[in-house]
Design goal:
With 185 residues, this protein is of the alpha/beta class. The protein has a 5-stranded parallel β-sheet with strand order 8-7-6-3-9, with helices on both faces. A two-stranded antiparallel ribbon has the order 1-2.
Length: 185
């Protein structure tokens, strides 16, 4: 979709949309908009129409960082907050996060994380947000093919993370079960 900005086209891609959403979160504008929507102050803000049995699968395979954690995990947490601000209970959310490829190491315990990053003093800062997501009912899943490629075992993986046979068949299965697909790039 193209939008004209002073006679210059602006390509609206998922990356651009995510960038603008992150600005809303950083500057607190998102909460202001959600408060305005909930108070009825502005009738032109569209809120969630489907409020039951919301199914989402995130495809995360890029090693990008945001606020000191994996960027994909950051945005999954933001999605939970967005639904919460619109009054959608966690019990209506079915979110699976399928991590594979370059992002796979985000789901490692500290010792294998240190070996992977070649830094004996590093700590996996993703561990806390992964546990928060799991505590909120998100299914955090790691591709077994990615694990095999790096020589990781189930003992190397953070508690609560599920291991799936491979990322692609898992995401296809979830999509065929009605999950909305979000490719995080």
């Amino acid at each position: 979709m193209l939008v004209s900005l002073q006679n210059r086209p602006l390509l609206l891609t998922a990356r651009n949309v995510l960038f603008f959403l992150s600005l809303f979160f950083v500057f607190g504008l998102f909460s202001s908009f959600s408060l305005a929507a909930s108070s009825g102050a502005s009738s032109n803000i569209i809120t969630v129409q489907h409020q039951k049995d919301i199914k989402v699968v995130y495809d995360i395979n890029q090693d990008q960082q945001q606020a000191g954690i994996g960027k994909g995990l950051y945005y999954v947490r933001g999605l939970l907050e967005a639904y919460e601000k619109q009054g959608i209970p966690e019990s209506q959310l079915h979110i699976s996060v399928v991590v594979h490829g370059a992002a796979g190491y985000w789901l490692l315990k500290d010792e294998p994380y240190q070996m992977f990053t070649n830094d004996p003093f590093s700590v996996n800062r993703n561990a806390k947000v992964v546990q928060e997501l799991i505590d909120h009912g998100v299914s955090v899943e790691l591709c077994h093919v990615t694990m095999k490629g790096h020589g990781w075992t189930a003992e190397d993986v953070l508690p609560g993370v599920k291991i799936v046979f491979d990322a692609y068949t898992r995401m296809i299965d979830l999509q065929q079960s009605g999950y909305a697909y979000i490719k995080f790039t």
